[in-house]
Description:
The complex is a heterotrimer of chains A (551), B (174) and C (106).
Chain A: H1 6-27, H2 33-42, E1 45-47, E2 52-57, E3 62-64, H3 65-78, E4 82-85, E5 90-93, H4 101-109, E6 127-128, H5 142-153, E7 168-171, E8 185-191, E9 197-203, E10 215-222, H6 223-240, H7 251-258, H8 260-277, H9 284-293, H10 307-315, H11 317-326, E11 327-329, E12 335-340, E13 351-353, H12 354-367, E14 371-374, E15 380-386, H13 387-399, E16 414-415, H14 430-439, H15 443-449, E17 454-457, E18 471-478, E19 481-488, E20 500-501, E21 506-507, H16 511-525, H17 532-539, H18 542-548
Parallel strand pairs in A: 6-7, 7-8, 16-17, 17-18
Antiparallel strand pairs in A: 1-2, 2-5, 3-14, 4-5, 4-13, 8-9, 9-10, 11-12, 12-15, 14-15, 18-19, 19-20, 19-21
Chain B: E1 5-9, E2 12-14, E3 19-20, E4 32-35, H1 36-47, E5 53-57, E6 83-88, H2 95-106, E7 112-117, H3 124-129, E8 134-138, H4 143-150, H5 167-170
Chain C: E1 11-18, E2 24-28, E3 31-33, E4 42-43, H1 45-55, E5 64-75, E6 78-81, H2 84-91, H3 101-105
Antiparallel strand pairs in C: 1-2, 1-4, 1-5, 2-3, 5-6
Amino acid sequence: MYRYDEFDHKIVTDRVNQFRGQVNRRISGALSEDAFKPLRLMNGVYLQLHAYMLRVAIPYGTVSSKQMRMLAHIARKYDRGYGHFTTRQNIQYNWPALDRIPDLLEELASVEMHAIQTSGNCIRNVTADQYAGAIADEIEDPRIISEIIRQWSTFHPEFSYLPRKFKIAVTGHENDRAAIKLHDIGIVIVKNDKGETGYEVHVGGGQGRSPFIAKKLTDFVPAKKLLAYLEAVMRVYNMLGRRDNSYKARIKILVHETGETEMRRLVEEEFAKIDASQMLSLPEAELDRISAYFAPPNYENLPAQSDAFEAAKEGNPEFSHWVKTNLVPHKTPGYGIVNISLKPIGGIPGDATDAQMDVIADLAERYALDEIRVTHEQNLVLPHVKLDEAKEVYDILCAHDLATPNIGLISDSIACPGLDYCNLANARSIPLAQEISTHFADLDKQYDIGELKIKISGCINACGHHHVGHIGILGVDKKGTEFYQISLGGSADEKASLGDITGQAFTEDKVVDAVDTIVETYLNLRQPEERFLDTYRRVGMDPFKEQLYAD
Amino acid sequence: MPTKTHLIANGAVVDDTWVFIDDETPLGDTPAIISLDRLKAEADTLRSRNAKLGVVIRTNTQGKTKLGEDVRELSPYLDMLTTIAIDFPVYRNGRGYSDARILREELGFKGELRAIGEVLFDQWSFMARCGFNTFEIDSSIPVKAFNEALNELSEAYQPAVDNQRGVLWRRHGL
Amino acid sequence: MAQHSSKGARFQAVTANRLKDGEVVYFKGNGWIENFAEAEIADGQEAAEALLTRASPDNMEAFILDPYLFEVSESDNGFTPVSVRENIRAKGPTVRTDLGKQAEAG
Ligand code: HEM
Ligand code: SF4
């Protein structure tokens, strides 16, 4: 894992002090709310329905046990005993008081964490594949370049007041778990013909009101030149991005209106100048320094097969189910990647209590080489667990309601905070996730249905990724009452696609029925081995529509 | 926008000898800041003028076709210009930061680069890093507060126009 | 965000969030209280405008954020907010009934 040096410490500490000054000026009345709002937003502080909300960055989703304990401590001391892990690999606290946030941030800084650029029209927290460094067949650990991008983008003087927010995601694997095509910039680590490692850059993806899949602007940029390339994209955007309408201000609209070819030309032209100046050419020594932090941890030399693990599966069908859904093969013999579901049946997707966070921190320390990951599907991961010890880990997870064997299944849905917390919401999201999960609680049924990703947003901003849900649900408001639009066939992986809307929206009490109808229709139509998404792509919307709007 | 401003240069309040002149008013022989349109239209006569000349670059918030004026259009005239003022219509509109860097780094402008418009406390240090060297700020703000704000963040990761090299490089003595 | 009041709304109250901690507050008399049940209710559009004006003095920004009117309706046991949103603000998250005003009340 990356560790701060004195420069990183200084930068984060300066920021805490600066924000303390800003909060003091606001509370004393020296600063108006208008002037203060963008400052608090740049420090991750929103005003929600009931209270302030603080969003803490978890760069590329990696935390240590010490950091996780701090997140638990903050939930206890400054909040109401829980936190919400988000689709952007952040954690949100729903109740902190403004005047205590500077103290909170100071405590966070002591474990090398911050809330910098978790909101506002700047470059946000960089996200990456949650299996980074643990999965086989990875070209390079995406966290290396993510950390470099994090540093380069932190307090970037030119790009802190962009037309709109800007999100970057990185994957180093052909299976995209970071939804890179739905980001303002998506980076795929690749190898060229000569076997050199470099970066493929996709630009202009996004969700919100007008969703777009990103366009690939270049096949290959070497590490040394990547910052120059990113700076070129950012400058073109900052100069030409629309500022007249916030719904048209994201780079996706610029790419769409300018056209892919012209956008590429503009970026290349800018890149040529920045590259020629050599200013941003990344020193080899810095690349090496940061890479060293992500060197593989000290794995033990273990046989690929663990007798203890096999025996535990034999003797315990529940454990064996959990292994099937929640444990992913590790690149190192004798290890596995453990997914911790934050989606207990009927629970609030992504919420974890302070006690659960402490348990997970202990598990990471004892069993997982001190690492934890946050996934963009609002779950957690222990990336390096010995198969020999998987059963022990499982037992402890079970005791804390953290072992629901449902990763990728219908009850593993994503939901944004929605109208229960969010100031922009049209409708609630969480209760729907809870009702759907309860309706499909039966595990055998869930296994039968197979992979099915439900994603729920409480408004068109699409924080719950509904556009890319296999089944997407979007809350709309009709005269103060909640309605929900359903879409089918979206996907966020390497074959990204946007869902199609089924038709008229449903009232809250009809949504679960509608989902049930969709699932039944799929079960009737599917061919052997077909997932929901495959069936949908084969048969299209009509059969679903017929069933949904039959009467 | 503040009703009354003072000009800060080199960490002190300075007398502003410049006057913004609109397109209809004839230019006298005192330092004058004019529009880009006028500069382009009258460049030939302006060349033989005997007083200092400046230009203001306006950023627009209306309509996508009017993002704002393009600083690159200044390149044939840079030798005539002592001052370039860049307007921030609202602090949220950060196009001027790129304008400044393009002028300094790409076009090599060495003169006065002045931030005007909504130029607030928490933007000053970013502006300075992008190459602004004078600031029109609310005259109720003491220069001491200005100087402190510039130093609130003492380190920077990335290079810009100021002489900070960027932590990513400085770590290696570069 | 939805409209907080419909066109012909009869009863309205004024709400805001408190600067220091974001707490939902309601206007009453010449100050702010935390409990919706005690909020001052204006009958008719004119009374509503007057209430909002009273709730928004020049120095208001020093401790209260963005006061606005929202519609309420009369029922047997007093007034209730009309929209789902204002009901949730008045009580707390529907998915965590142990939190927010609903928890303190009960
Ligand atoms: C609760 C307070 C929140 C507010 C006020 C908020 C606000 C917004 C807004 C305004 C947008 C649309 C931006 C645009 O299209 O330009 C957006 C998009 C998004 N937000 Fe949130 N959000 C909140 C919570 C969350 C949470 C909890 C998550 C993660 C679970 C999240 C993740 C995202 C993502 C992934 C997108 C869409 C992707 C994109 O277009 O960038 N947000 N949010
Ligand atoms: S999608 Fe809408 S309701 Fe949900 S968190 Fe985002 S802004 Fe709020």
